[in-house]
Design brief:
The protein is of the alpha+beta class and 101 residues long. 27% of the residues lie in helices and 29% in strands. It has a single domain, classed as Nuclear Transport Factor 2, Chain: A.
């Protein structure tokens, strides 16, 4: 029984430590020059913390194709960081508004 519990705990810890492979808008990735892994690194450099949500979307500004990350740091408010999927440029780095996407 203890081995089963230990396995469940270890599996859960790994699941939360590794970001999910799927993200919203993944079907748009074929049009992006910047990969999700590169965009994550850029976003976390702009605002260190833990990514709680990520998506690739068509949105005004930059090339029109943007990775959007919600990043939480300690007890601070959630920060939304947008990375252009073509250039890797940070397009947005603001506190998440009252109407999160």
């Amino acid at each position: 029984m203890n081995k089963i519990i230990a396995t469940i705990i270890a599996t859960s810890a790994i699941a939360f430590a590794i970001p999910a492979q799927a993200y919203t808008g993944q079907e748009l990735a074929k049009n992006a020059k910047v990969t999700i892994q590169e965009a994550r690194a850029i976003a976390l450099k702009a605002h260190p913390g833990k990514i709680t949500d990520e998506e690739l979307e068509n949105e005004k500004g930059g090339s029109g194709l943007r990775y959007s990350f919600d990043i939480k740091h300690a007890h601070a408010k959630t920060q939304e960081v947008g990375v252009d999927a073509m250039s890797g440029k940070v397009l947005e780095n603001d506190v998440e508004g009252p109407n999160p996407d």
